[in-house]
Write a structure and sequence with these properties.
Elements: H1 6-18, H2 25-41, H3 43-51, H4 55-60, H5 67-80, H6 84-92, H7 95-101, H8 108-124, H9 128-133, H10 138-144, H11 151-164, H12 168-176, H13 179-185, H14 192-205, H15 211-217, H16 221-227, H17 233-246, H18 250-258, H19 261-265, H20 274-298
Helix pairs in contact: 1-2, 1-3, 2-3, 2-5, 5-8, 8-11, 11-14, 13-14, 14-17, 16-17, 17-20, 18-20
């Protein structure tokens, strides 16, 4: 999309919103696709869409059956949800429930787009924890999608689980539904896009009771170490965060040490990315503390 001036962009978005009315579906596919592109790239466009009344008709399109239109609409609604005031409109229009219902779609692309759209909705909802719990069977449904054969669907579901797991009560529920073994089964993937969001989800899930121990018992720790050899900085960051959480269990520290994690993490301690730097240092520190404790015990 060519760069437009602020005025041109506003006028274009207003014109596109005006076309959300009684139009053939083949026209709506392109109109909604363009709105989604504008909303995802420009914060000003999200504001314009909301101010000219475009959020509600977009949400209403989530009730359709046209697959390309649903894909573009979920993308557009998800982009609008990045704006907190637009999120309030989405919530009022029951948009999150509609997105959640699309997770049942037989189309992998619709499932994936719906899960991606749910992420900013959870992030910006007024009471995200309660909102998510209000969908009967919703948490069980999203955990079940970790069995999907589609990598994009899996990445989007992992991203959504990472958001859901920020709420302690919801984390407890998805743990009861078996999120840990299902995430653990995915750790052998070589897809960096999936690796990034999988590691994020694992890091979040580690904070509930003995989940970090359960990940170790499911042999999910050693495969994570190989992620640090990826050229992708985002994968490094999320993986280091997951390893830091997992390293709070002594048995996991032993597994990491045997997988030569320290050699991989040491250069990352000097990273300009503060989150990566801190997580790498924290993981190494936990491994070192365990080693020192063992050394001390030998001489007692």
């Amino acid at each position: 999309m060519a760069e437009l001036s602020s005025l041109e962009s506003r006028l274009a978005v207003e014109q596109l919103v005006s076309l959300l009315g009684n139009q053939p579906e083949e026209v709506l596919v392109n109109v909604v696709g363009a709105l989604g592109e504008c909303a995802s790239r420009y914060a000003d466009s999200r504001v314009v869409i909301r101010k000219v009344g475009g959020v509600a008709p977009l949400v209403q399109l989530l009730t359709g059956t046209n697959q390309p239109l649903l894909i573009n609409t979920t993308n557009a609604v998800g982009a609008c949800a990045l704006d907190q005031e637009s999120m309030a409109v989405i919530d009022k229009q029951d948009g999150v429930r509609l997105l959640w219902s699309l997770l049942k779609s037989p189309n992998d692309d619709v499932q994936a787009c719906a899960a991606w759209a749910i992420c900013p909705c959870i992030e910006n909802a007024k009471d995200a924890g309660e909102l998510v719990r209000s969908f009967v069977g919703g948490l069980e449904l999203i955990v079940g999608l970790l069995k999907s054969p589609d990598h994009e669907a899996l990445a989007s579901v992992c991203a959504a689980i990472a958001k859901i797991a920020k709420n302690e009560e919801n984390l407890g529920v998805i743990t009861d539904h078996g999120v840990v073994p299902l995430l653990a089964k995915l750790t052998h993937t070589t897809d960096d896009h999936l690796r990034r969001h999988l590691a994020d989800a694992m890091a979040r899930c580690c904070t509930w009771r003995n989940n970090r121990v359960a990940f170790g018992e499911a042999e999910a720790v050693a495969p994570l170490v190989s992620y640090l050899k990826s050229p992708d900085l985002d994968v490094h960051r999320s993986t280091a965060c997951a390893l830091h959480q997992l390293s709070k269990d002594p048995d996991n520290c032993i597994t990491m040490h045997e997988a030569a994690v320290v050699k991989c993490l040491l250069p990352m301690v000097g990273s300009t990315d503060f989150v990566l730097q801190e997580a790498a240092a924290g993981c190494i520190s936990n491994i070192r503390h365990l080693a020192l404790a063992n050394e001390k015990e030998k001489f007692m």
